[in-house]
Amino acid sequence: MIHSLFLINHSGDIFLEKHWKSVISHSVCDYFFEAKEKAVDPEDVPPVLQTPHHYLITVHRGKLFFLSVVQTEVPPLFVIEFLHRVADTFQDYFGECSESVIKDNVVTVYELLEEMLDNGFPLATESNVLKELIRPPTILRSVVNTLTGSSNVGDTLPTGQLSTIPWRRADVKYTNNEAYFDVIEEIDAILDKSGTTVFAEIQGVIEASVRLTGMPDLTLSFMNPRLLDDVSFHPCVRFKRWESERTLSFIPPDGNFTLMNYHVSSQNPVAIPVYVKQSISFFESGPCGRLDITIGPKQTMGKTVEALMVKIHMPKAVLSANLTATQGNYTYDLPNKVLVWDIGKLNPQKLPNLKGILSLQAGAPKPEDNPSLNIDLRIQQVAISGLKVSRLEMFGEKYKPFKGVKYVTKAGKFQVRT
Amino acid sequence: FLHDDLKEMLDSNKDSLKLEAMKRIVAMIARGKNASDLFPAVVKNVACKNIEVKKLVYVYLVRYAEEQQDLALLSISTFQRGLKDPNQLIRASALRVLSSIRVTIIVPIMMLAIKEAASDMSPYVRKTAAHAIPKLYSLDPEQKDQLIEVIEKLLADKTTLVAGSVVMAFEEVCPERIDLIHKNYRKLCNLLIDVEEWGQVVIINMLTRYARTQFLNPNMNESLLEEGNDKTFYGSDDDEDEEEEEEKKSEAPMPKRKPYVMDPDHRLLLRNTKPLLQSRNAAVVMAVAQLYFHLAPKVEVGVIAKALVRLLRSHSEVQYVVLQNVASMTIKRRGMFEPYLKSFYIRSTDPTQIKVLKLEVLTNLANETNISTILREFQTYIKSMDKDFVAATIQAIGRCATNIGEVRDTCLNGLVQLLSNRDELVVAESVVVIKKLLQMQPEKHSDIIKHMAKLTDNIQVPMARASILWLIGEYCEHVPKIAPDVLRKMAKSFTNEEDIVKLQIINLAAKTCVYSSIGKYLNQDYKYVLNLAKYDQNYDIRDRARFIRQLIVPTEKSGALSKYAKKLFLALKPAPVLESPFKDRDHFQLGSLSHLLNAKAGGYQELPDWPEAAPDPSVRNVEVKDSVPEWTKCSSREKRKEKKVEKPFYSDSEGESGPTESADSESDSASGSEIGSGVVGSVSGTASEESEEGSESEEEEEEEEEDEKDKKMTMKKELKKPVQENPREDDMRLTLSSLFPVEPAPSPQVTPLNSFLSNSLATDLEGLSLSDAVLSPATLSPCSALKSYELLHRIRGEGLSVEYCFSRQPFSPDANMVAVQMQFTNNATSETKNLHMEEVKLQSGMRVKEFPEIELLPAGETATAVMGIDFCDSTQAANFQLCTHTRKFFVSIQPPVGELMRPVFLTENEFKKEQGERF
């Protein structure tokens, strides 16, 4: 299916290539470079390109392009999802997925790719299985290995490969048994000029960090599962239990993983935590415009709004911004035309305001388009939908684990149109 | 030489140096640098003890073997040895590398290795064999027939590990052999949820195609009325008309067709794939979505919308693919996505390609009720900074206007306003769209045409200029004074125009000329234009000029045609239909590469049309031979039983009648199997016992179902009670059995300390049996308590109960046989006579030595007998009938792996010697 993989950095250098079948010359990437030239933004390079003899399927992750070459029919999402899984694995192994890290660990990367695909078909993609085959690099281990000559490569078949729970390895042991769950909700919203909600919804995710000995069988139940409208699960979750009892029952993978993604039912009105009063106008006469933005709390469930940040993509003609902020700092990134106002904590008594003059390129016509505001924020200790975990139980093991649930609300794609 | 230092390191005795060298070489390969001159030095290390060195050598070999075929052959013997290794990982990786070396000369060796691996004990090795099939096929397509045999064999495999890989091989080697799927169809459906994600995608796509050949169209009996209700606004009209016609046609010959009943197997597929819509893997969700789109009854397709909308939160590449598919779906099934209209609203931060696709979906979703909301959205989009996106929005507005009559004027006014926009691209796009809209009602809009005529002074975009000129020419009757004016201006600039504009100038000239029936004052302009065109560089333009001259200017020869010039040029032309580029894309299987590119990709398998009449459904019936040891039923019910047994165990044998029940059992098998394997992981020794328990519980479960059906059997009720009292435990046991459908998975735990025993125990029974001769074993008497298994329950046996155990003693009549000690207990009130065995059914190679007949077993008494079975080192069950003077019971004995062993005593030195030789 996947014939070859090329890793390409932003400046267009191919710094790693791997072939699972006959070698394909890297000149095939020229078609991609051509498309990349045409696109204004790397995001705009079509993920699927057709060349005379091959198809190129590309994903863009962390300033790198993962370009795969396929020759025959294959579901494009299959390849895309797999390439993202590869990037996830690198992130998992090396802490980040960047050119320098991949170059530093090129042998491990190669060994990983070798295990992940056989003849272009995914073989082992579960991080637990991979970690038994190829141990992640640590400083201590590399020292030990050079001294003893032992290797990072396992010589027995990982237990996960044969069992029906490939995500968990056997013989997990911890002295401190802990299971933490983070319920993270994101508000996706579009507000129009007047502040009316055009569209709003809440997307949530439960990230888990489970370090438990043995084969624990966990059950997580909610106070108000009815809120959840659409869900997707890690393969460990027993779907039928969810269907019948609305509880999450699972044998967890070892370590960090995403337990579930959910979408909150659209019947419930979405609480919008902040309101924005804004006016951005450009004058017909004279090369300038005026900007005035105030942000205030709206429905915050009695909590403080933190890490408030406003990002504005300005029209091309805007050269500089001369503004005063009553709170926080602002920066104007000229090449990208992005104005960022980092506010921090929102104080309801003293509303933050940003006001001033935008200067335009001389002679340029007045921009007709108004930029939109992208808001970023965080509210700790609350899930804005009101979702609550009621219980976490463990079966199958005798010890008492340490359990914890944390809630946080963030702004997702939160946009105010002007 | 270049890499002398590396060669030296490779030749050294130290593993650490070799490793360092190999790492550097692999880094070179990764960077795309040539390291082929090191081949001889590297290949020597193929048998290196250090596993990491070995693996890196494999990497090197696979990369360069093709170029250095002769040298590569040196390594083959190492892999052949590896194929016989007791460690399954080594067997598998040997096969992997061997099959990845693209050297034609070893094709026969590969073929042999694949065939052997396909019947390996370890499912992991069998999986590797499945992966090797397409490799060999691409190396030598001549092997197809033999490979199909292997595929057929592996398709019958009942482990989830193999299922995905073998279907992948099937798709690459013989996708046309749909007949191979019949027997495995239900099994694949049932295994699906436990197969790994990537396998799920492949299986679902294949089953979609399969279902299209085997089942009837679930939407065929839809009434015309419903169809009318659901009609989409445009585009699909013709479609549906055709469909309707087709329906009429097909219904005509059999007017009183039976109401459509869905094949239970069709239902099974739909039901078993549905939970996968909740998968975290976008590819799986998409696969299920396309399956529902292509196979489900209209009313059920809706469930996929929510899942697809969810994927829009994922990476932008995922969004891109999903939106393309949603766009295709919205054309046929608009109603499905209407509730999610707002999820397709566009954010200024979306990449342009995503914006354009969302726009496409929004346009497809527009209807009378939501058009005002959509147009309001479009208004904000027009102000965007992203001009390509604005252009696409204008096109979208045009499409909405053509499709929804009520808003046509509003849209047109809006677009006319855009004509004064500062951005030329916006204006140009508006002109093009307005032109199309005007064609629908030109008489009402002569003012707009006049307005546009003025634009020719400013607008430079060729497409827009051409559109304006065409409009003026076409409707010169509505603007009789302006047309000649424009022509005069254009005649001046003719030489500097683009080709499409030039063509339209000629057109305009011809039309004004014809309209004014060769007005005299026009003559000059028109002749001037034609003369310029005559000497144009572009032959298209020269041709056009010549053609038009002949038509319009009457000469002796062409007189006849010029009479019709007006009819030719000013004929009423149908307004263009603005339709989605995604119309009719769904003749490609959704989710496929071909669909995305709207062009057939290599290896694409057409999605067949539904058959007129369903092929025989009985081809999917499976005769359960030895995997279901539950034949112990009274003979009076045997016939009925036979029928039932044909269906696979875990599919709901009640069919449609008992959906809830079957759903339960499915859920349990999903959850329980996880629990089960957990047990295997930690207490491997007991795994086989549990599998035994599992098959018992199967019997019970089966019986439970029977009971529900057959209320007359009051006696059975007794048994049912305890089962019900403890449903959880029962569930769990049931599911354990699905974990080990045929043979218990080999114990995955291999600790180095007892590697000799456990290795052979788990993976390489063959090895042990071969070694018997060498070892000259001194058998020990068994010291541990023996575990006994139930062969026949007293209730089923009508009072006779039989237990058996593996006595772990040599079976004296035949050394190759395993001794099985049976204990018969007569719990009935009457005596049992003539206990003996009949009709032994065995896998090839297996042999049985029957126990001597027990002539009489009085009530309450117990008797023992010993029989011998040669299991041929497999874990296949031995099936036979246990007969009394009145009754016959089907029973089966399946050995746990551990019981096939004979204890052997070795001194430490002997052990080490063996270990050294064998590992």
Automatic annotation (TrEMBL), chain A:
Family: Belongs to the adaptor complexes medium subunit family.
Protein localization: Golgi apparatus; Cytoplasmic vesicle membrane
Keywords: Cytoplasmic vesicle, Golgi apparatus, Membrane, Protein transport, Transport
Entry keyword annotation includes Transmembrane helix: no
Gene that produces this protein: LOC117744426
Entry-linked InterPro entries: Adaptor_comp_med_subunit, AP2_Mu_C_sf, AP_mu_sigma_su, Clathrin_mu, Clathrin_mu_CS, Longin-like_dom_sf, MHD
SUPFAM superfamilies cross-referenced by the UniProt entry: Second domain of Mu2 adaptin subunit (ap50) of ap2 adaptor, SNARE-like
Membrane topology of this protein: Peripheral membrane protein
Record has Methyltransferase as a keyword: no
Name the record gives this protein: AP-3 complex subunit mu-1
Domain named MHD: residues: 176-417
Any GO CC annotation of this UniProt entry: Golgi apparatus
Any single GO BP term: vesicle-mediated transport
Function: Part of the AP-3 complex, an adaptor-related complex which is not clathrin-associated. The complex is associated with the Golgi region as well as more peripheral structures. It facilitates the budding of vesicles from the Golgi membrane and may be directly involved in trafficking to lysosomes.
TrEMBL record, chain B:
Protein's name in the database: AP-3 complex subunit beta
UniProt entry tagged with the keyword Transport: yes
Ranges annotated as biased composition (Basic and acidic residues): 635-649, 709-730
GO cellular component: AP-3 adaptor complex; endomembrane system
Domain of life: Eukaryota
Organism expressing this protein natively: Cyclopterus lumpus
Gene3D superfamilies referenced in this protein's UniProt entry, alphabetically: Leucine-rich Repeat Variant
Annotated family: Belongs to the adaptor complexes large subunit family.
Ranges of biased composition (kind: Acidic residues): 236-246, 689-708
